[in-house]
Amino acid sequence: MTTEPVRSSDQLIERAIAIASESRRKTIAVAAAQDVDVIGAVSQAEADGFLRGILAGDKEAIQRLAGEQQIPIDRLEIIDERDVDRAAHTAVRLASEGNADAIMKGFLPTSALLKTVLDKQYRLRGKNTLSHCAVLDIPGYHKLLNFTDGGMIVRPDWEQKLQILENAMSVARALGLSPVKVAISAAVNERTEKVTHTLSDVDFIVPRASEQFDDIRIQAPLSFDVATSEKAAAACGVKGPVVADADIFLVDSIEECNIICKSLIQFAEAVFAGVIVGARVPVSLVSRTDTVKNKKASLALACVLSDYYMRTNLRDDGGY
What we know:
Layout: H1 9-24, E1 26-31, H2 36-48, E2 51-57, H3 59-68, E3 77-80, H4 84-96, E4 102-105, H5 110-117, E5 131-137, E6 145-148, H6 158-174, E7 180-185, H7 197-212, E8 216-222, H8 224-228, H9 230-236, E9 248-250, H10 254-267, E10 271-277, E11 283-284, H11 292-312, H12 314-317
Parallel strand pairs: 1-2, 1-4, 2-3, 4-11, 6-9, 7-8, 7-9
Antiparallel strand pairs: 5-6, 5-10, 10-11
Helix pairs in contact: 1-11, 2-11, 4-5, 6-7, 6-11
C-alpha cells in the first residue's frame, strides 16, 4: 500500500479501499441503526468494499427503512435490539471485545452514545478528552484541512487544547502527514493581551507541543486566511513554517469551528469527513444534511484511523 500522504477526500476513500484490499478490512458497529441516512452510508461503503457493517438496532424498522429507500442491506449483519440504550451497549461491546474496529452513531443522541463509549466496563476510554476532527476537502486549498474541536468542548483551556491537538495529530499521522503543520487560530497574527487566549497559546501550547511531538511545525496565533493563503500572508507581512500550508487549524471555541466548517460546507461545497477521537476506537457520526460523498468520506476516515491505531498499538495503549 502506498505511504503517500492523503491529500483529498477521493484519496481518503481510496486509502480505505486499499487497506481493505490488504486483508485489513474494518468492521463498523452502528448503535441504534434505524436511521435511513446511516443505513445508506454503511450500505454504500460496504458496496465499495472498504468496510463490513453491523447494524445494532430495531431490525423491523431497519428493514422497513431500507425497503422504502431501496437500500440493499443483504450483506449487512443486523443485531435485533429495539431499545436504543441497549443497542448502544451492543455496538460498544462489539468494539470492546475486538469484534468491531469503529463505532458509528445511529438514531440516538450523541451524548448517550459517548456516555456508553466511556463506560468503564468497556475499557475504551483513552488518556485524553474526546474531541471532534472535521477534515475538510476545500475547493481552492491544496490539501485536506483538519478543524478541531467543533463538536465536544465548548471553550477549552490550554491543557484541554493540548489534548485536542494530540488527538488531531493522530488523525494527521493516519493520513500519512509528516511534518504536521499546525496553526492555532486567532483573529490576530501576534500575541496580544487584547486577545487573551493568544497568551497561553504562545506561552504554553507551542513550547509543549514542540517538545512532545518531533514531527510538528506549529505557529500561533494565525488567522484563517494567513494559515491558508500565501496572498493573505504576504499582505499581512506574516512569515513562518505554517503560513499558507496548515494541516490542522486548532480553534479556541466550538462556535468558531462550527461557523467556519459549516460555511465552507454550505457555500464552498467542501467535502466533510468527521470523526470523534480520544477513545481507543474512532467514533463516526454522519448528519442528515451530509451528502453521499461526505458520509462515505467520514466512514473512510474512521477506517483509516482505526488501521493506524492497529499498526501503532494506540488502541491497546490508549494514547502516545
